[in-house]
């Protein structure tokens, strides 16, 4: 019953699959952002697990930078979303597929 | 034994809550499930000995990121049911699984080889936070500073984008009126 690196990698794969499914399925942009957070988190689990099983700190460092990037992505993404919502009163992905500006 | 129990417990809970987050039609349920999943993920980090990462996960994700999302939810009035035109579930599911397996194959292929050596081996006698601090402020100092600048840029971008014209509702104006407003602000 020992937990190996492969267990953690399998878990990260399952979570990545869930996030990818959400990215493809969601049409509401806020919900799409939730799914991207799941993607980033699943990758972080993989990094931390590899860092632990190979006795190397590089994986944790990458996880920190991924978290920093996720935080700035949320700030800029929500700002853009607010501007879009103020102008069009909708954050539906299908309605912004027309390139009218 | 306890590691196995905690792994399977956390894995089950995280998968369930993230599955709810991507499939539910209620924005509030999605946000709550996402918050639960984020906190539960930090359990893996503590099991893996990455204490500092676990604390950062709770503070940054469950604290800052989800607070921002909660703010966004209030702003967008997504408390009603989210109406979405759903594509074919079978196609989307198959594509997601295929893409995931492909990504895993690409990323995990180097792990198959046996000659992997640790660049920055962890030391047994020192705590995790101290090790992280030493490596972060020596080997990864430049990426750390770049990340700091990037966060500053993101903060300014967020303030400028979200705080601009909070007093007028842009949805109720026509395109020419918006341009008039912008011209007024420039003068």
What does this entry look like structurally?
The complex is a heterodimer of chains A (101) and B (187). In chain A, 76% of the residues lie in helices and 0% in strands. Chain A has helices at residues 5-25, 29-53, 58-88. Chain A is mostly helical. Chain A contains 3 helices and no strands. Chain A has one domain (5-96): Helix Hairpins. The termini of chain A are far apart. In chain A, helix 1 runs antiparallel to helix 2 (29-53) and helix 2 (29-53) runs antiparallel to helix 3. Chain B is mainly α. Chain B folds into 2 domains: 1-84, Up-down Bundle (Four Helix Bundle (Hemerythrin (Met), subunit A)), CATH 1.20.120.1200; 140-187, no CATH class. In chain B, 74% of the residues lie in helices and 0% in strands. Chain B has helices at residues 2-23, 27-47, 51-76, 89-112, 128-138, 141-163, 175-186. The N and C termini of chain B lie far apart (70 Å). The mean pLDDT of chain B is 82. The interface between A and B is large, with 73 and 90 residues.
SSE topology:
The complex is a heterodimer of chains A (101) and B (187).
Chain A (H helix, E strand, L loop, with lengths): L4 H21 L3 H25 L4 H31 L13
Helix pairs in contact in A: 1-2, 2-3
Chain B lengths: L1 H22 L3 H21 L3 H26 L12 H24 L15 H11 L2 H23 L11 H12 L1
Helix pairs in contact in B: 1-2, 2-3
What's the short story on this structure?
The complex is a heterodimer of chains A (101) and B (187). By secondary structure, chain A is mainly alpha-helical.
């Amino acid at each position: 019953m020992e937990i190996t690196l492969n267990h953690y990698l399998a878990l990260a794969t399952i979570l990545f699959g869930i996030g990818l499914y959400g990215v493809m399925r969601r049409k509401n942009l806020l919900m799409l952002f939730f799914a991207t957070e799941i993607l980033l988190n699943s990758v972080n689990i993989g990094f931390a697990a590899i860092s632990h099983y190979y006795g190397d700190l590089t994986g944790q460092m990458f996880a920190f930078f991924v978290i920093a990037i996720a935080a700035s992505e949320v700030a800029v993404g929500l700002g853009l979303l607010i501007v879009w919502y103020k102008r069009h009163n909708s954050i539906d992905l299908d309605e912004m597929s027309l390139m009218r500006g | 034994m306890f590691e196995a129990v905690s792994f399977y417990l956390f894995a089950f809970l995280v998968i369930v809550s993230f599955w709810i987050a991507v499939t539910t039609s209620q924005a509030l349920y999605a946000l709550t499930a996402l918050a639960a999943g984020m906190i539960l993920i930090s359990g893996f980090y503590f099991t893996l000995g990455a204490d500092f990462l676990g604390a950062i996960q709770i503070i940054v994700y469950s604290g800052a990121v989800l607070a921002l999302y909660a703010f966004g939810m209030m702003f967008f009035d997504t408390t009603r049911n989210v109406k979405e035109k759903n594509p074919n579930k079978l196609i989307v599911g198959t594509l997601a699984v295929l893409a995931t397996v492909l990504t895993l194959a690409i990323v995990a292929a180097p792990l198959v080889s046996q000659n992997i050596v640790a660049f920055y081996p962890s030391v047994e006698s020192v705590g995790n936070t101290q090790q992280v601090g030493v490596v972060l402020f020596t080997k990864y100092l430049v990426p750390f500073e770049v990340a700091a600048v990037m966060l500053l840029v993101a903060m300014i971008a967020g303030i400028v984008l979200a705080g601009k014209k909070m007093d007028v509702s842009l949805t109720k104006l026509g395109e020419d009126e918006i341009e008039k407003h912008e011209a007024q602000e420039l003068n």
